[in-house]
Amino acid sequence: MTTTSIHRTRLRAGIVGILFTIVLLVISAQAIRLHVFEGAWLSERAAREYERNMVVEGKRGAITDRNGNPLAVSIESPSIAAYPRRIKDRQGTAAQLAQVLGQPADSIDEKLNPKRSFVWIKRQASPKQADQVKALALDGIDFIPEHTRVYPGKTLAAQLVGFSGIDGHGLEGMEFYFDATLKGTQKEITVLEDALGRRFEGAEIPAHLGQGNSVVLTIDRAIQHIAQKALEASVSEFEAASGMAVVMAPATGEVLALAHYPFYNPNRYGQFDRELWRNRAMTDSFEPGSTMKMFSVAAAIDSGTCSPSTIFYCENGEYRIGRNIIHDTKSHGWLSLQQIVKYSSNIGSVKMAQKLGAQQLYAYLSAFGFGQRSGISCPGETSGSLSAFNTWSTIDTGAISFGQGVSVSAIQLITAASAIANGGVLMKPLLVKAIVDRNGQAVAAFSPETVRRVISPQTAATMRRILKSVISEGGTGVNAALKGYTVGGKTGTAQKIDKSGTYAKGKYIASFLGFAPVDQPELAILVVVDEPKKKDYGGIVAAPAFRQIALETLSYLNIPPGPDADRLRVSRGNRANG
Q: pTM value?
């Protein structure tokens, strides 16, 4: 071998050695980077390839009426899942699943992409669907135990009860408000899978998880049905936009029914307009109109400013205050305070308020609970609005006395009326009787709660007599009269305010607020009908619905008509108290 050849061989060997050294250094550097600097990240990523974290939850507690009738329950409903990497015949599997589940085969085929290790096929399938899929014995298909929320009454008390989503979290109503109470024990588990997506032994979902507590409401399923039926009839007959009805036990403040129309079905809540989900008896405020006279007159009598026989000149239907003119629907001359309520004279109410004074009127209305939240156990309660009396002008004081310039919620109105019905004591409205565990044992119980005395027992009795006259011949509430029972109440017709803050022409809220029997009221009932088209007076639109609710409910509670009404009061108490 020549010297030149030897040099060439050594040069080649050196170059190869250098290249090997460089490659070795690169590999070493990469190994150090992966093991030292990115080791934790790579371990986590590797774990994700064979570990899947899932949160499983025990059965959600029920929501029932006061007598234990279910309004919301959870039933076992397995979810169907797939491990796409285990599926050999992707299209065939998709076709068979589509036929059983009623889903497009293309959609299921897309889910079965082998790039995915796990995919949901059908969350909370029906037992029939699960059994049919199990019978197919398809590779790569799994069944994971879950629960479906079911509302047996469908539209019954839907706005109050609300609903929960597919993951078992309360989204509206009492389902939302008591979500932490209702939901079962949660546990996060790690499902281990091999390269083919098969679960390892020992990674099964726990068979027993703690069940959530149940919520017992004060409403009565039968009374709720009565209220909803009467409300639907009234809204439909007068072609109104919507309506609300609330039934309360005046002595305790317990809500026996809380109805809304139009209805919606929480089993299929996604198919209904979101506006229908809202519990408007709690969340929405409106001008009460002449139902407010019930409370302003009570203030005048209780303060000693007036008596039922105090007379006021009602200006023959037209009364000017500065640049403003107050009108009555009918022309009246001299009227006593009792007649002002009976005929619903705005002018008489204004003159009474002028005599009472803004400060005293404000104090009593505040004591009745207006302008403040009641603290009821329900989400989204509005406080309404009652501005400070020192901001009122003369016309403001008069207008507020007959229900303009003040806004209230339905629950505020019925609670305030109950204070007159029960002898002058404001009760905190009660919607929940108890929280019970899976064995029916009470975890928490809620009793009637007195807020304060608003008016004297004598004033309350006087007001009940005055409100009884509203139902007599010539009064605005004759359509609320019950055969065999005495009724006291007040009609309301309030012009609605539009988005610009001015009164909307031709848009009214018609209402009736009352109680029965007058001497010892067992029920306080409010009916509110929004934007009726055929008629707009509360005495025509809302009073008949009040009459139907009161008559059927009194019969249901075994409260007899006439002078023997006290005989079965114990029966009513036992029934209403569950």
A: 0.82
